[in-house]
Fold this protein.
Amino acid sequence: MMFGVEGRALLTYTHIERGFYKKESAMKQTGYAVAATVTALVVVTLLTTAPCISQASGKVHIVVKGDTLWDISSFYIYDPFLWPQIWSANREIENPHLIYPGQEIVIPERIVRMPPPPLEAKPPLPPAPPPAPVVVVPVEAQPEPEPVTEEVKQEMILAMSTFGFIIEDEEIGIGTITSAEEEKRLLISPGMKIYVESDKETPLWTDYRYSIVRVFDKVSHPVTGEKVGYLARVLGDMNVVHSKGELSTAIVGEVYKDIQIGDHVIEHLDYMTWIPKEESGLSGDLNGYILIQSEGKSIMGKGDVVFIDLGIEDGLKAGDTFNLVGKKKTVGGVVPPQEVIGEIQVIVPRQGTSVARITKSFRDIAIGTEVVRGTP
């Protein structure tokens, strides 16, 4: 647009200079040229100094310290992978990775949500040879466990990169990112070469895929006081291309969150295998506790994401629901029955712990609240 206005101004000036300039009316023609030039300069000045107004007319977010377009997209439109549409609606932002406190970010009202990518078709396996005839005693057929779909996998990745998960001690300690090939770049992006130092005597495996995580605070059980693990977030993954001694070279694969020097490398998180061991799933009564809230809150309500001390070994799978119960005070030596104060739904089941969201809350919910399956 700016080039077009300047172009029209230059064409107007050239037209005046070539078409109307005559020796016998030099004074008059000079006045026309000056007037046309001043008009063009005023138009250009107004266009260059006017604020850049996006076509979006949605909400306005005021940037605070620590904000990223990824987080803003996750908060307002519930999908961090749509942050390019927020950037497109704010053309004054030159670098999407550099936003500053106090900056106004317009949230577009119209969002285009892309469907999940189609699953790649696998070639059919050759037919197996016919088995030899044997005598088989009839038994009750057991249904095959239902695999995790690609859509559920993406929901798991989103939850574990945005809210986090609890990682145990033995999962940490494989390696640490020490440097990147392009050190001047602010962010580590897909396809970039990085260098990983092994935290053990054995090097990382070549041609092997690992997950990249960032480890935060220690998590202790609110009832027993025992250490459960650490709060962590998955940031992406990488493939090792060369290993020698304690130093390995890897190529960054998918990136879900900003990866930095000092982040940890762990065994690859295979989301597709996180299914209950038995198809029957949950059986009978089951109870556990809320360990921690994803943002460190002590009092929670509907919509908050929490971590519980139940996992796939207990038969949990994504979508399972549990009651949250509270204990009433004992009156006259009589212990009243437990009171249902809310409900949670499992998002990501893991070994030993699970990520869940509070879907109902009838009063304040605290760390250590009991999670119950069945009659409280």
